[in-house]
Amino acid sequence: MKAVFLAMSGLILFLCGCGGTSSGVARQGSQLPPHHLPDGHFKNIDTSCAPIRDTMELDSLVPSYRTKVYRLPIARGNEELWADSTASTATWIGHGTYYILWKGYGILADPIFSDRSSPVQLFGPKRGTPPGRNLDSIPVVNLVIISHDHYDHLDKGSIKKIYKKWPKATFAVPLKVAEILEGWGIPESNIIELDWWQSATAGPLKLTFVPCHHLSRRGLFKSSANSTLWGSWILERPKEHKIWFAGDLAMGDGSYYKEIAEKFGPVDVAFLPIGSYKPSRYTRVHASPRQAAQLHLLMGSRLSLAMHWGDFGMVYDRLEDPPKDLARARRELSIPDSSFVVPVHGEIVPIFK
Ligand SMILES: [Zn+2]
Ligand SMILES: [Zn+2]
Fold first, then answer.
1. pTM for this structure?
2. Over pLDDT 70: what percentage of the chain?
């Protein structure tokens, strides 16, 4: 029975995607960038992600401690801003998904509209609140940005629906994620695939893919761990505004973010993850709300918007923990409440004020 328990727990963590471990360190080819391994896999080059498997079994003995999801409020209003081509807004769809309408140019970040974060919709973590806005209500999607291949960030059903509705949309993805999308029918000509620090143009925007301390895994086999790259995105309208979409990250030793801040800070808007950080060992792969607040300060963000909480039962923080812990961090770090906001599902927030 215990073996079944442990196997189920491992399966749930695999489906959640964001509770895994980094792969081991292999030989380094001198011609490769330092985060590329000779076998084609990738690794973090700041503090490595320590294995957490040794203590995972304790959690599996008390599965009832896992985050219980329930329905949160859904906001309506401000839709007139979507019709204003001079306005720029961000709308929290749920979890790590934001819809950014930047002067009429529509961007979906890490879109997941499906009921479950899973390769199949029969089992796996189920959302407690419907998406704050559905795809049919969104005015336009010109660009989709993907931070990494975990199921809660790269959702097959959502990608296929987006492409069907907006076949000219560009999909900007990390190295080695393009072939996943091509397998789902997205043409190569619609995809931009970047390594860390590489840039490309999409419509009026300059995109730069930048590092973050995380990992990747998609598939049952251990060989899929870190076989695709992970990271975060800087979006710029040169000489106007800058956005940092942080994706899914841990603080690591902070060196990635210091370098991003030196090269791109201050940013006008940062989208920062605040969930899946309890017990504390999960901060090896995720940021706590306090660390997110520190990143807000480090990047000189004028407005930060919270994400990566509130929908799927990933690890063991209670659903209400992230906003409460963020409020405490704001007080302790003297960050005005209006500078680091936790939107309600579906809330259309004006940005670049
Ligand atoms: Zn995640
Ligand atoms: Zn992840």
1. 0.90
2. 86
Domain for residue 296, yes or no? yes
Give the bridge partners for 200, in sequence order: 207
Compute the distance from residue 214 Cα to the ligand 2 centre, in Å.
Answer: 7
- pLDDT (tens digit per residue) in 141-195: 999 999 999 999 999 999 999 999 999 999 999 999 999 999 999 999 999 999 9
CA-to-CA dists, residue 309 to 46, 183, 273, angstroms: 25, 29, 7
Look at residue 179 and tell me if it is in a domain.
yes
Residue 113 has pLDDT above 80, yes or no: yes
Distance 153 CA to ligand 2 centre (A): 7
Q: Are 311 and 129 in contact (CB under 8 A)?
A: yes
Sequence-distant (≥ 6) Cβ neighbours of residue 231 within 8 angstroms: 147, 148, 174, 196, 209, 210, 211, 212, 214, 247
Q: In the 8-state DSSP scheme, what is residue 117?
A: S
The structural domain count of the chain equals 1
For residue 148, give its domain range. 79-350
E strands of the chain, at which residues? 88-94, 97-102, 105-109, 143-145, 170-174, 191-194, 199-202, 205-210, 232-237, 241-245, 269-273, 303-307, 340-341, 348-350
CATH number at residue 218: 3.60.15.10
CA dist., res. 65 & res. 63, Å (int): 5
Contact 193, 145 (CB under 8 A): no
Q: Please state, in angstroms and rounded to a whole number, the distance separating the CA atoms of residues 85 and 101.
A: 9
Distance between Cα 267 and ligand 1 center (Å)? 23
Residues 314, 7: Cα–Cα separation, whole Å? 16
* 164 located within any domain: yes
Residue 201 lies in a domain: yes
CA 216 to centroid of ligand 2, rounded, Å = 7
